[in-house]
Amino acid sequence: MEPTVSAAGLDIRHFGHDDLADIRQTIIDLHAAAAGPDRDDDFKKKFPWFVDHWGGHPEFSCVIAFDGDKAVGFAYGAPANPGREWWREYLDPAPEKELTFSYSELAVIPEWRKQGVAERLTRTLMAGRDEVLVVLLVDLEHPRVQALYETWGFRKVGERQPFPDSPVYAVMLAELPLS
Q1: CA gap 4, 82 in Å, rounded
Q2: 69 versus 6: which is more confidently predicted?
Q3: CA distance linking residue 175 with residue 99, whole number of Å
Q4: At what angle do helices 20-35 and 42-55 cross, to 10 degrees?
Q5: pLDDT digit string (tens) for 53-98?
Q6: What domains are defined for the chain?
Q7: Among 132, 77, 84, 123, which residue's Cα sits nearest to residue 104?
Q8: Intra-chain end-to-end CA distance of the chain, in Å
Q9: Are 59 and 79 in contact (CB under 8 A)?
């Protein structure tokens, strides 16, 4: 575990691949709390698989925000495999810059929303990265989330449905460090 960073009364702690066994249930519980008790969609059911998939990457990076001992939000992702940045197909010409960070998940529990926690988690996760680009997907049914990412320097470059049973997502790209 890396050193703790304090932000707006919260402790934002860094975790990596070797910490997954210790943080896995915290991430799953936070995701469920952020989604809400009434939301019983397929992604919520499949989410533990995604945690294991991303957490299995040797360079997995996760930040979790804590209010005292209570976890209130998280963000995670991992570097993309060089030469396999699938998002490049949406740009003509594609940027010459290499090394992309795939930003997979962000969740904040309802009582901590609209306080800048999501942005602090995002900026903390992206700070000091070796990659020069970051890519993420946003469900097209959530235009306010897409607009929020745009205020942090992301831009929509295309749309993608990664799985036959998944929603269609906006493909969003930003240069690091975030503006």
Answers
A1: 30
A2: 69
A3: 11
A4: 160
A5: 999 999 999 999 999 999 999 999 999 987 777 787 878 777 777 7
A6: 4-175 (3.40.630.30)
A7: 77
A8: 27
A9: yes
One-letter amino acid for residue 169 of the chain = Y
**Exposed/middle/buried for 93, CB within 10 Å: 0-12, 13-18, 19+?**
exposed
* Three-class SS state of 170: strand
Residue type, 69: D
Distance CA 43, CA 35 (A): 10
Looking at the DSSP assignment, which residues form a beta bridge with residue 18? none
Distances (CA, A) of 140 to 35, 46, 170: 17, 19, 6
The verdict on whether omega for the bond into residue 95 sits within 30 degrees of 0, i.e. cis, is no
Q: What is the pTM (predicted TM-score) of this model?
A: 0.89
Side by side, the strands of the sheet bearing 133-139 are 4-7, 10-16, 61-67, 70-79, 100-108, 133-139, 169-175, 155-160
**Calpha distance 132→138 (Å, rounded):** 20
What single letter denotes the amino acid at residue 95? Answer: P
Nearest of 66, 171, 44 to residue 120 by alpha carbon: 66
- C-alpha–C-alpha distance, residues 153 and 155, integer Å: 7
